[in-house]
Amino acid sequence: MSMPVDLGSLFLHFLSLSLLSIGGAISTVPEMHRFLVERTGWLTDSGFTASIALAQAAPGPNILFVAVLGWNVAGMQGAAASLAGIMLPSTVLTLTATRWMRAHRSHVAVRAFSAGMMPLTLGLIIATGWLLALPFLREETRRWGALALMAATIALTLKTRLGLVWMVLGGGVLGALGFV
Amino acid sequence: MSRPKSPRELFVAFTRLALQGFGGVLAVAQRELVERLGWLTKEEFVETLAIAQVLPGPNIVNLSLMVGDRFFGLRGALAAVAGMLAVPAVIVLALAAAYGELSHYPMAVDALRGMGAVSAGLILATGIKLLPALQTSALGRPVAFGLALLAFALIGLLRWPLVTVLALIGGAGMAIAWWRLK
Fold first, then answer.
1. Does residue A77 sit within a domain?
2. Cβ of B140 under 8 Å from any chain A Cβ?
3. Quick check: is A126 in a domain?
4. Could you list the pLDDT tens digit for every one of the 180 residues in chain A?
5. Cβ neighbours of residue A83 under 8 Å, at least 6 residues apart?
């Protein structure tokens, strides 16, 4: 079913998403899913979700889930190709734009860009959470446990200052015990 | 205010803060850079973050680039972003490699399944937490929430490609904001 792995197009795919990743690379997760799972079949649906969960469970910036996706497609070279792709364009743009934006903070174009992009960014973040939750909702047998765990996570994040690492570890323990 | 003495000190500081950040580095970055090291005032931190968020790329990586650039130019930017990524990348890839072995054990798969449910919840919660930011949007509340809802529906439910949605919703948002602000 799946197409043969091609490092060049893996690199180019992430390169093309770099400048679109406003609000973080996590907002381009739906697009990565379309490419890696639906179009090329390089990853399975559960492999895709597991890659992201693994990166979330580890310390460091969330962007490293891109390296894990690449790793699961093509090992070390895949990780290097995908991480380099997602980082290069945005790094160059950030370095060149930073000074200009600092100097023109109050310019109408800068404010219009920021205000105009905000609804899209928020819609994307919620769509990302929704797409990551879907595989759990589709599964018949343990659907309610997963739903309860997600609801508890949302409530704890909004209502307490509990460290996120404890929630992720707690989810791992509950999962290992077969509750989710 | 103090400042880093060398790009090397930047590298170490960013490695240190990245390793403390499970499930998000932003809160740790504020505590380390503003409160512990005193390299940025609270106002400078917020201002830098605002620009980092508007630019494409992970906001925390953009923030590292901008802080490094401010003290040592390009060398500083690269030192900070390398500190943010190098050691955590080794750790996460080691975990990914081990997961190939571990995946033969149902318990490890179930544990990751539980973690996956939590990370879906964390991202949804982040979205919910940030939604009130739209209340003060220059777009006006109804337009801002309407566009966010539309973006969610097009991406999450109808699975439209991001480029199309970005052009449509981002373009409309910027045009309306421009018209209201000028």
1. yes
2. no
3. no
4. 578 889 999 999 999 999 888 767 777 899 999 999 999 999 998 889 888 888 877 888 889 999 999 999 999 999 999 999 999 999 999 999 887 876 787 888 878 887 887 788 788 878 888 988 998 888 888 889 999 999 999 999 888 877 677 888 899 899 999 887
5. A14, A63, A64, A66, A67, A70, B85, B89
Cβ within 8 Å, pair A60-B56: no
Residues near A4 by beta carbon (within 8 Å), at least 6 away in sequence: none
Touching B: A residues 29-48, CB under 8 Å: 30-31, 34
Nearest-by-CA chain A residue for B173: A116
A56 within a domain of the structure (yes/no): yes
- Residues of chain B in contact with residue A113, where contact means CB-CB under 8 angstroms, are 54, 174, 177
Q: Say whether residue A52 is in contact with chain B using an 8 A CB cutoff.
A: yes
Nearest-angstrom CA–CA distance, B177 and B182: 8
The structure tokens listed for B161 are: 């490609």
Task: Report yes or no for ipTM above 0.85.
Answer: no
Range of the domain at A87: 7-107
